[in-house]
Amino acid sequence: MLDEIKDDKLDSLIAMDPETSLIESKEAIARQIVRDLPQPCDDLLWGFFRNNYSLKTLADILGKTVGYVKVTKHRCQEKFRRHWNDLAKNLF
Questions:
Q1: Up-side HSE of residue 55: CA atoms within 13 Å toward CB?
Q2: What whole-number distance in Å separates Cα of residue 92 and Cα of residue 32?
Q3: Is the torsion defined by CA of 72, 73, 75, 79 positive or negative?
Q4: How far is CA 16 from CA 11, 12, 31, 56, 57, in A?
Q5: 69-89 in b/e burial notation, b at 16+ Cβ within 10 A?
Q6: What is the per-residue DSSP string for 51-73?
Q7: Which letter does DSSP use for residue 37 in this model?
Q8: Are 82 and 75 in contact (CB under 8 A)?
Q9: Which of 9, 47, 58, 88 has its CA 20 to 30 A from that of 32?
């Protein structure tokens, strides 16, 4: 999937295509990275950051404890950061 991002979106990011803003490109890349993360990272990160669900709500949805959700969310954020940083190194 990340190769598709490089081919489709990153060329316009580098070229600063006037039809695709830098913010739109970064958002598209971030969405793709989150989609590519293993479960439950996708659900946790979307639920917490996009839907503003509390840790308690996410725990109820997943049928897990709040402690599990907190630790797993942190690990998922680290995975996201690694993917983002790796991608940034390849771009710039």
A1: 10
A2: 19
A3: positive
A4: 8, 6, 20, 41, 40
A5: beebbeebbebbeebeeebee
A6: S---HHHHHHHHT--HHHHHHHH
A7: S
A8: no
A9: 58
Q: What single-letter amino acid sits at 6?
A: K
Instruction: Indicate the burial class of 47 (C-beta count within 10 angstroms; 0-12, 13-18, 19 or more).
Output: buried
Taking the alpha carbons of 74, 80, 84, 87 in that order, is the dihedral positive or negative?
A: positive
Q: Domain boundaries in the chain?
A: 2-91
CATH code reported for the domain at 2-91: 1.10.10
DSSP 8-23: IIIHHHHHT-TTS-HH
Residue at 41: amino acid letter: C
Q: Encode pLDDT of 13-68 as tens digits.
A: 445 555 556 677 778 888 889 999 999 999 999 999 999 999 999 999 999 999 99
